[in-house]
Amino acid sequence: MNFAIASPDIALTAELQRKIDNKTKPLGALGELERLALKVGLVQQTLSPRLDQPQMIVFAGDHGAARAGVSAFPQDVTWQMVENFLAGGAAINVFARANGLGLSVVDAGVAHDFGPRDGLIDAKVAPGTRNYLDEPAMTAAERDSALARGAALARELAAAGCKVVGFGEMGIGNTAAASLLTHHLTGTPLADCIGRGTGLDDPGLARKRELLARAAARAGLPATATGGGEHALAVLAEFGGFEIAMMAGAMLGAAEAGLVLLVDGFIVGSAFLVAARLQPAIVDYAVFCHRSAEPGHQAQLAALGATPLIDLGLRLGEGTGAALAWPLLRAAVAFLDEMASFESAGVSEKA
Ligand SMILES: O=C(O)c1ccc[n+]([C@@H]2O[C@H](COP(=O)([O-])O)[C@@H](O)[C@H]2O)c1
Ligand SMILES: Cc1cc2nc[nH]c2cc1C
Fold this sequence. Notes:
The chain is an alpha/beta fold. It has helices spanning 13-21, 31-44, 76-87, 91-98, 140-159, 174-186, 202-219, 228-239, 242-256, 266-278, 296-304, 320-338, 342-345, and strands at residues 55-61, 102-109, 120-122, 164-170, 260-263, 286-288. Strands 3-2-1-4-5-6 form a six-stranded parallel sheet, sandwiched between helices. InterPro entries: Nict_dMeBzImd_PRibTrfase, Nict_dMeBzImd_PRibTrfase_bact, Nict_dMeBzImd_PRibTrfase_N, Nict_dMeBzImd_PRibTrfase_sf.
């Protein structure tokens, strides 16, 4: 998989900042929204950015390790929630509708036969990954196929005129995979990357910790923030889910096409970590939407030097944090476009 993501040219920074500073407000008074406006202006290389056709994509996949007891819920919930997405009844459906976002649902590797279905993109790599307690979760070929399929989806969106894409996921057991990815790609101690996911009790959490320590010991890969792209690819094949790999590919494809990326919580963050180890400049295209209550998310944000937009104690996934933060980004671009300047409104500047 060859991606070439360059940081946006910063030559426009001073002019964009001048436009922001000339709006009718004290200097810097729109805080984080000003940084968002600047970011989107640089990504699109214009003083008048637009965020047309905002789209959420929810990637679903199953995990071989789910059957070993790393989640509070049974694996079947993955396909059952996909049905819920298709019927329009999940939280992400509600928030996407409320905030004017399109929503696509992708079967990246659910252990269920949906048959041909309206509204479901069939990109199934395999019906669930293998159990990483015993063997690598996926082969290199499966990983590369997931990455390529994700990138192709993002390119199709870009070709259709989409300028901003939000990422969401569904997969019972995927907090465990995200914990292993976060540990190996940031160097954070494994225990600090593991949380209760969908709601494990204390004995369940202890068992999850024990199982994941065993999986890490079996694979024997280094845990480091400086491993680069090859290391990230090895870690992804060892522990990843197909939804995580496909999201990483879609993020890379989207950034390469100049889209703004809405990064959701802990699992989406683990896909982003993989993408960032492959192509570090991808951070310039990303908006970190919310802080997940899952403890490993803090390790990701710290490793990326990212401060999320909102902190609502969410731990649902599906892209809900991204869909909820999206209106803030829309407002940032709107103020840049529509707000009067001191000159146009005849407002006196600071003495
Ligand atoms: O995105 C998050 O931060 C997040 C935190 C905890 C749980 N989830 C969701 O819960 C599921 C995974 O939880 P688990 O306990 O089965 O690993 C998966 O479908 C995720 O969308 C998501
Ligand atoms: C009901 C349910 C909904 C979800 N949405 C994302 N992950 C989920 C996990 C469960 C268990």
